[in-house]
Amino acid sequence: MPPKADDPSALHYNPAGMTQLQGVQVMAGALITGGSTNFTSLTGVTARGDRNGSAAWPPPGHTFITANLKDLGVTALSDLTAGIGLTSPFGSLTRWPNDGPFRTATTFNTLPLLDIKPTLAYKATDNLSLGLGADIYTFSGIFGEGQVEKQFISPGSPAFPFAPAGSKMELSGKGTAAGFNTSLLYTALRNADGKPVANIGIVYRSQATLHLSGALLANGAKVSDAKATLVLPQVITGAIALWPVRTPEREWKLEMDVDYVGWKSVRNLDVTLANGATIPQPQNWKSTYAVMLGTEYKWLALESLPNWEVALRAGYTNQQTQMPDLTYDPGLPSSDLHIVGGGVGFICKEQGSFLGLMRCGDFGVGSLKPKAIGLDLSYQAAFYEDRTVLGNRNPTVNGTYRTTLHTGGVSIRMIY
Q1: Backbone φ, ψ for residue 284 (5° rounding)
Q2: Structure confidence at residue 5 (pLDDT)
Q3: Domain that holds residue 348
Q4: Percentage of the chain with pLDDT > 90?
Q5: What is the domain count for the chain?
Q6: Would 117 be classed as within a structural domain?
Q7: CATH number, domain containing residue 383
Q8: What CA–CA distance (Å, rounded) separates 333 from 37?
Q9: Considering just the CA atoms, what is the radius of gyration of the chain in Å?
Q10: Would 185 disulfide with which of 16, 56, 331, 352, CB 3.0-4.6 Å?
């Protein structure tokens, strides 16, 4: 979360916060996402969409590596922290029945986009840190389909003259684009021990344009090369973190951040074929806001678990829909959204004991033995408000959508 960054995920949430991290730190994990969307048409016909099964596979993942250059002995760059990350920022995966009521609109949709994030953070003063990084968006066959993919059933002529009615159609493409991010972390207030008790964070992520190249297939056979342009939105985040309690024994933190997402840049996803023909896919999305609230209570010195830290976390997010009824796509669940979640985190320091069997600092070999090992577990439930779509450009899409998604996460952290 942007205002406070005390683990390597700062590289994603607020890169300026990497200056708070010591030594070399590694964090990696995955998200298991499941759930469904239930559709009821205006005439009472029903259908159910899922994540291409009970859970999306392969699961979206993340990896972050940070290095405080001063701790590595690079004194000439002692105020710099470097890092690199890999995330799946806009991943989606939705499957609908091939004989469903809006099969001519979509039966399968996936966007397994990867974001590679080389990043630097600079500690300008004791209270101000700045971050600058690149966002390299691309695809890989290691993750899911390795490309943007949309499947549907051809309605035939005249609406879709490229294949006979009933043909299984697939549009796919991939490409690479670059954007950037800048960030700020300001400590407005410290306690008597010098620890922050009020932080302010600001993050800007730029727009990026993916020029996708791929193909149009009919019943598995290539019909034509195809091209499209996907615009990834700019995101502006402002946030604050407060610690009502911050002592050597325990900490209680409250956070709030507000995201502005410039979805209005997504005007269309028109597909251009090799012969110059165009498959129109207007979008005309609208920009949105999201408000996120979170809290964490952390025990730093437990008598029952010496040299361990334990944290309990909870949060709530409210997010607006970006899709108008006219261009609503069942392949991307979209309505006003409420997310509630919680989690627990553990850190076992070098002298701590793991299950009474061995010290946590004894994991690894030689210089790879960690100073601490962390484990974070989380769960989120995403409740989409019931949405009734009317006036869609494909009338078969009109109806009511009810979506609930569940996400479980696990991350492992190593501090060297």
Answers
A1: 50, 50
A2: 66
A3: 10-415
A4: 81
A5: 1
A6: yes
A7: 2.40.160.60
A8: 8
A9: 24
A10: 16
**Phi-psi bin for 396: left (phi > 0), alpha (psi -120 to 50), beta?**
alpha
Work out the average pLDDT over 74-97.
86
Task: Give which of 375, 364, 264 is closest to 309, Cα–Cα.
Answer: 375
CA pair distance 171, 160, nearest whole angstrom: 13
pLDDT band at 72 (very low <50, low <70, confident <90, very high): confident
Q: Are 87 and 117 a contacting pair, CB within 8 Å?
A: yes
To the question of pTM greater than 0.90 for the whole model, the response is yes
Task: Give the DSSP per-residue string, 378-404.
Answer: EEEEEEEPPEEE-S-SSGGG-EEEEEE
In a domain, residue 271? The reply is: yes
> What is the full DSSP assignment across 13-63?
H-GGGGGG--SEEEEEEEEEEEEEEEEEETTS-EEEEBSSSSB-SSPPEEE
Q: What secondary structure, in 3-state letters, does 165-188 show? A: CCCEEEEEEECCEEEEEEEEEEEE
CA distance 257 to 255: 7
Residue burial 396-415, b: 16+ Cβ < 10 Å; e: rest: bbbbebbbebbbbbebebbb
Task: Report residue 150's pLDDT band, with 50, 70 and 90 as the boundaries.
Answer: very high
Query: Is the bond into 244 cis (omega within 30 degrees of 0)?
Result: no
Whether 2 contacts 239, CB under 8 Å: yes
Would 193 be classed as within a structural domain?
A: yes
pLDDT in tens, 167-226: 999 999 999 999 999 999 999 999 999 999 999 999 999 999 999 999 999 999 999 999
Residue 99 lies inside a defined structural domain of this protein? yes
What is the residue whose two structure tokens read 């690479």? 176
